[in-house]
TrEMBL record, chains A, B:
NADPH binds at K113. Belongs to the homoserine dehydrogenase family. Residues 19-136 form the Aspartate/homoserine dehydrogenase NAD-binding domain. NADP(+) binds at G19, F20, G21, T22, V23, G24. This is Homoserine dehydrogenase. It comes from Neobacillus bataviensis LMG 21833. Pathway: Amino-acid biosynthesis; L-methionine biosynthesis via de novo pathway; L-homoserine from L-aspartate: step 3/3; Amino-acid biosynthesis; L-threonine biosynthesis; L-threonine from L-aspartate: step 3/5. Residues 145-323 form the Homoserine dehydrogenase catalytic domain.
């Protein structure tokens, strides 16, 4: 299966993983467990060369021949580096790291929606200049192939509207509140105990996480974003057990829904709780599931549903990106001398 | 947008459409209404050069510069022909037409599941020899991009099981019987009046249509098919209003479900009615909707739902294939002298 044209180094694709949390570790384990499939698909072996970590005290099950470091500069100095996978959180330092990776000539893949919502355009432009690819399927709806599906539909369809349940934590809390008659606080605590919510859940329950994903989807579906300040963003913290109970008596459910649509030249988006009936495609999307519904002119309405987060679903999206950037029509992965910038 | 390298003919992609029923007409109309999008995506103008029809007496709204003929040989003799779209039914003559088209050096796209379930492998091999592509997304689940999604997941995931509601007519009948307390015969008649079922509904209600689609999915998901004779195929004709009513009292619904799974080296498939509860992803798939659920090792379970048939959803799948075969890594569309074989 392995093609042996060119230098020896061309038969191996060297990957660095930035961050070894849930997603980073999922990517590392998947590259190891699915080595055979990757070699078969790519005709090259995929190897993790380095992992960037923060806390040197934590025990991690990483092979000894992998460089494990707290210094990104050390990773950049590796003699070969083809792809940088970023699985950190927050905007910085990830944005700076990825800029340097692109300038070195690496393809980049990110799962970081906050960073990508803010700096995606800049990274895509820089990548274009440097003739490398950017994968970001993992930023929206975890393992559900939303971005690829939108791209494919867009070959011919004109998208009218995109709706999504994009935050698994909020959906889990709303589901628990309704099914088990729990308060918001009880349901949040359960989400935290199950690892679906952070100690500080603001990003999820106030709708910021869904907002970032919505902006990324808008850019793909419509080529642009609404003005961020014009987007109504509301989380689920104001929803009480009583509201949910009253809704249920009417056959309705609260869901936290992102909606993006184009009217004429204007893109409009909202990210907020909505009351929906059983005819809505999201009525039965429960727990940590995500769903995205795409309305377009030729095909009509298509709904995709699946796990929106978690170690392996997100890793799957990252690895699909990895295959995509490697097989993309760009020139073969190149080694570029490290310049001092 | 239009690249002008090479001969003039290279700036136009010439398409012949075989059959002008629902799907054929949908493809024709879509190529006209979305000409701008196609030129933008492909860098070439897409033109319908010819349409193969059966009945010369029927009025059709087809542009005067399109060759409308009952003779496939006339289409094959066109000075330029890049893509043949087949939207007929039954195995012959479509299979023979497509073989000749491939031998002439045309890419082919088909929406004909019965023909493709029987002869797909042979067509794919012949296409490989002739260095052309075959598109068949439209054979399964209309506008839902099931085949592309499976292919993409397969880059890295190992598929465990694929399930589908693949026949919109059967699903419509079961939905009507339950929601409106109708008999099978009443619901079938309504399906016929709405154009969802043929005068002879055997293919749909006895499960043959779903069976063909299941075999096509099996080949993509697992690289092979079960022995056709070992597949339990049962339609919905034995389901009575009483059975549906009893099920409903238990919170269950009858759905006509195709299931394909691999155990060890063995592929197993069934196509039959199943009683499912509200936890099943197909419980809420109603009317003429289709759905496909894919279970794989890394990403978990993903469900896709949408219109499984109809003029424009199916046309969308055909046109996505058209874009795909044109952009595929094969050599550019070639003109080959028509040989006498």
């Amino acid at each position: 299966m392995i093609k042996s044209k060119g230098a020896d180094t061309m038969t191996v694709i060297k990957v660095a993983i930035l961050g070894f949390g849930t997603v980073g570790e999922g990517v590392y384990r998947t590259i190891q467990s699915h080595a055979e499939e990757l070699t078969a698909v790519l005709g090259k072996k995929v190897e993790v060369s380095a992992v960037l970590i923060k806390n040197t005290q934590k025990a991690r099950n990483i092979s000894e021949d992998v460089l494990v470091t707290t210094e990104f500069a050390e990773i950049l100095r590796l003699p070969q580096l083809d792809i940088v996978v970023e699985a950190i959180v927050e905007r910085e330092p990830p944005f700076s790291f990825l800029k340097k990776a692109i300038e070195r000539g690496c393809h980049i893949i990110t799962a970081n929606k906050e960073m990508f919502a803010h700096h995606g355009e800049e990274l895509l432009e820089l990548a274009e200049e440097n003739n490398v690819s950017v994968g970001y399927e993992a930023t929206v709806a975890g393992g559900i192939p939303v971005i690829q599906t939108l791209r494919q539909l867009l070959n011919i369809n004109r998208i009218k509207q995109v709706q999504g349940i994009l935050n698994g934590t909020s959906n889990f809390i709303l589901t628990e509140m309704r099914e088990k008659k729990q308060s918001f606080e009880q349901a949040l605590q359960l989400a935290q105990e199950n690892g679906f919510a952070e100690a500080d859940p603001t990003n999820d329950v106030e709708g910021f996480d869904a907002f970032y994903k919505t902006m990324i989807l808008s850019r793909i579906a419509f080529g642009e974003e609404p003005n961020w300040h014009d987007v109504e963003r509301e989380g689920i913290t104001a929803i009480t057990s009583e509201m949910i109970e009253t809704a249920e008596k009417l056959g309705l459910k609260y869901k936290h829904i992102a909606t993006i649509s184009r009217t004429g030249d204007q893109i409009k988006a909202t990210v907020r709780p909505a009351l929906i009936g059983s005819e809505h495609p999201f009525y039965h999307v429960e727990g940590v599931q995500n769903a995205v519904s795409i309305q377009s002119d030729i095909v009509g309405e298509i709904t995709l549903q699946g796990p929106g987060a978690g170690m392996f679903p997100t890793a799957s999206a990252v690895i699909e990106d990895l295959v995509y950037v490697c097989k993309n029509n760009k020139p073969a992965l190149r080694l570029r001398a490290l310049t001092t910038n």
